[in-house]
Amino acid sequence: MRYDLHTHTVASDGELAPQVLVERAKANGVTHLAITDHDTVAAYDGLAAADLALIPGIELSTYWSKRGIHVVGLNIDPDCPELAAGICEQQRARERRAEKIAARLQRAGCGETLEGARREAGDGAIGRPHFARHLLAAGQVRTVREAFRKYLGNGKPGDVRSEWASLDTVVRWIRSAGGAAVLAHPAHYKMTRTKLVELIRDFRAAGGEAIEVVSGRQDAATTARLARLAADSGCAASTGSDFHRPGGHWADVGGQPALPPACRPVWQLWE
Ligand code: AMP
Ligand code: MN
Ligand code: MN
Ligand code: MN
Q1: Can you give the pTM of this predicted structure?
Q2: Which of the listed residues 128, 136, 151, 156 should we mutate to test ligand 1's pocket, taking the one with most ligand atoms within 8 A of CB?
Q3: Can you list the alpha helix ranges (DSSP code H) found in 54-213?
Q4: Is the CB of 244 under 6 A from ligand 1?
Q5: Which residue has the higher pLDDT, 161 or 146?
Q6: Chain segment 227-236, per-residue pLDDT in tens
Q7: Are 187 and 147 a contacting pair, CB within 8 Å?
Q8: Contact 62, 71 (CB under 8 A)
Q9: Using CA positions, which residue lies closest to atom 6 of ligand 1?
Q10: Ligand 1 contact, 116 CB (< 6 A)
Q11: 38 close to ligand 1 (CB < 6 Angstrom)
Q12: Strand 67-74 with 57-64, pairing
């Protein structure tokens, strides 16, 4: 069995079409795959996946204590009306946010970027990576990383505090769709241990059930630390590559390290 419960497609900021991602997952030996695009389930429209268990998922954006936090929903009913209404709200927030990002980038000397970012996003949910790709294509930065470092990352002009739904709300949407709520990549938030424990406590109180003990190319010490946090907080453990595209600094689909054997895997909640 090989689980990858966190991946992206062109429906958000990934590079592969959903069917291509599924084929790649199969080729890499993945037996259970969740596609978890940012604030959308569009990848599941008409998606067929023979020889592989597809677990419907999503990665919802939210704010907690002035920080951007991501919550993955797994084994959701993508057609649940309450979730669908929530997704509409998040998409409107993304559109408003994109306009604000463009205005801020203009003031920072990047010129007009909204049309270019929209082109990069295509039919997908627009976000900062599309602005980064546009800046790269326009020759204003040399790498996507540089775009984040200069313009889009934490505390930079394009880091617009959006009107995302609250932590309680996004967890409620996931649960009303019958899914399990998973705190995504806890090590990415660069919080102190005290702050992270506080976040996990609030997340548990909201109905969250698991944390990503393994995310992408994470080192063994981080995995061990997160496994302890999961055990101490009574959380199940999830695992995912957070795959966006082949190459670069992302783990390949199914390429993340194994979950520590002592963890209680999140899939026990639905299998
Ligand atoms: P957004 O959904 O618009 O808030 O964009 C967040 C996404 O940007 C993340 O899911 C990553 O895919 C990407 N991202 C965040 N930080 C970086 C970075 N430093 N370099 C490249 N991509 C990044
Ligand atoms: Mn992303
Ligand atoms: Mn994320
Ligand atoms: Mn992700």
Answers
A1: 0.97
A2: 128
A3: 81-107, 114-121, 128-137, 144-147, 167-176, 193-206
A4: yes
A5: 146
A6: 999 999 999 9
A7: no
A8: yes
A9: 128
A10: no
A11: yes
A12: antiparallel
